[in-house]
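An instance follows:
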Amino acid sequence: MRKSGTRKPMRFTAKTGLAPRFASLLSARRSKPNVMSADLIRRLFSDPDMLRMGHLQRRRDLNLGFGGLYYALGRILRPEPAIVIGSLRGYAPCLIAKSLLDNVEGGTVVFIDPSLVNGF
């Protein structure tokens, strides 16, 4: 039984599609497989919320900050599923989902955000 004010975890998979907020960022259209392209980073950073996350990311030089680490962990560990708890606006789940899309095995990201920040 869910407590009042709690949300169900957001689930999306590399095979079945992503939550709508991330679908356009991680579309299957990519110029080179298995590459974190500058175009994808520009699209990610076009959302102002993705630059206010505190992961040391920077638009000026397309630096993902800790996002590079999240992506690398997904590529190296190949989790099934990857569970992300408390990501606020979805920066970490977005990059982990991209890493799972780039893995041959695919995968599932379960995004659980217990906070109800700004009606997100």
In short: The two ends are 23 Å apart (CA to CA). Confidence is low (pLDDT under 50) at residues 1-7, 12-18. The beta strands are 10-13, 82-85, 108-112.
